Amino acid sequence: MKFVADVHTHSLISQHAYSTIDENARAAKEKGIQLIALTDHAPGMKNTAPRAFFTNYHVLPHHLHGVELLHGAELNIMDYDGNIDLEEDILKKLDIAIASLHPPCIAFGTKEENTRASIKAMENPYVDILGHPGDPRYPIDVKEVVLAAKKTETLIEINNASLVPDGFRKGSDVVIEQILQYAMKYDVPVVLGSDAHFYTLIGDFSYCTALLEKVGFPDELIVNTSKDKLKKALKRNK
Known about the structure:
Elements: E1 5-9, H1 21-31, E2 35-38, H2 51-55, E3 63-64, E4 67-76, H3 88-91, E5 96-100, H4 111-122, E6 129-130, H5 142-152, E7 155-159, H6 172-186, E8 190-193, H7 206-215, H8 227-233
Parallel strand pairs: 1-2, 2-4, 4-5, 5-6, 6-7, 7-8
Antiparallel strand pairs: 3-4
């Protein structure tokens, strides 16, 4: 299966990533990736992109080196009520937004707290994707989260960086496999993200594809296979 889009990439502005937007676009071109989303961390995470970074997106092109750029953000879920760290005036101007649980922004909660935080974030009309669910440090009720994704028309990300053996989200593979099983059962689409913090990792879905093959996940529920399919699957475009 060929994937043409990577919805989760980071640049130097995130300060714990190591490439420029230009380098990321060039790498995407070389790998045959037709579209990447610019999803640097929103300002609720310290020492990352300021609010002005997202308000100034109009200076960036939507195509670079033959690659389409979606101007987006990886939002931080800041509390168990699912509040996120960019205001509506910015969110509605973005092309795409991911919302994720990150340790610098929200403490590791109970299963009930993490589930509520995830579901409430997905209820936001400007949150298109739930980012890297499955982190065992944030236990969730997998069935409830998948069903909420279906109800809110939010894509669930299958995050390649989470599946790196001995990575900082070690154990995510077990939970992500459960997510995929429920997504198949309830016909819920997913989107693959590299979560690249260096240009060589743009479009790298190697761990994702291995797990997808293991569970026999259907191609039709993966939205990265065409730009049009991806764009139509984003909540903000419905």
